[in-house]
Amino acid sequence: MRFIKEIEKIEGKKIIVRVDFNTPIKNGKVLDNSRIQSSIPTIKYLSEKGAKVIIISHLGRPKGRIDENLRLDNVVGELSDLLGKKVNKFPNYFDEEVKNGVDKMQNGEVIMLENIRFSPNEDGNKGTLAKDLASLADIFVLDGFSVAHRTDASVVGIPKFIPSYVGFLVEKELKNLNKVLENPEDPFVVVLGGAKSETKVPLIEGLSEIADLFLVGGAVANSFLKKLGYGVGNSLNSDFESEKIMSLIEQKNIILPVDLVVGEKDGSRNNVVNVEENPHSICLGSNVILDIGPKTRELFANKLQNAK
User: What is the CATH number of domain 184-304?
Assistant: First the structure.
């Protein structure tokens, strides 16, 4: 793995930077710009060194289709403000306009492509998308740690065609992760959530040798509860097979929610349901599990008080 400061002769190079600017937006306003801020050091460094910086990001889950509500216009405005310079955005992620625009870039200029998940070939690295994107640049830099695990064209595909490096954000996260894994302090508590148990189960299995406790919420908790025999209705969940996980739950190394907020998918008509010791139906009909409940929040907070 190579780091960004190892790039030689940056000036004049066209450099794709894959970031994660998947930020909450309401009424045209970015509500939380922390993800954008986290990649500013990498973008500034390259721009100030005279690179031609091409930003690639996603927003939401358009599932390979154009969704006018998920264009990156508001994101690029926020990026421009944080950089203190104008960042232009193309209305597409790859076409003749993009190619011509990149060819005309000046040293130090920063541009952004449209939401990469508008492409049906992004998820799973299909078709020629990765090769097409790679043709725009000389170098690829990954600065989106939160997407580093994905098999998307803009994450794992582009590096197959051009030299690749990691940016300051990914370098920082890797150093922190190595510190935790190589010399963890006790008690070592892991907080996990997310949508896909298939990506979290191997993580828990791998960390189980050094972690003291796992606090699990989100759809991953739904999946674990379903495996234990609880009814989760139409709540987001996924199947998995792992004797290790079931053993950790039985040994109380994995702490699951003791109460859950249940309601309609839009969040309406919600109420709190206690998770009893014996399996039962947590939600019925059109209701789904929306979040952990107040007792669980208190339980998790108490477990985290002495965590290192």
Answer: 3.40.50.1260
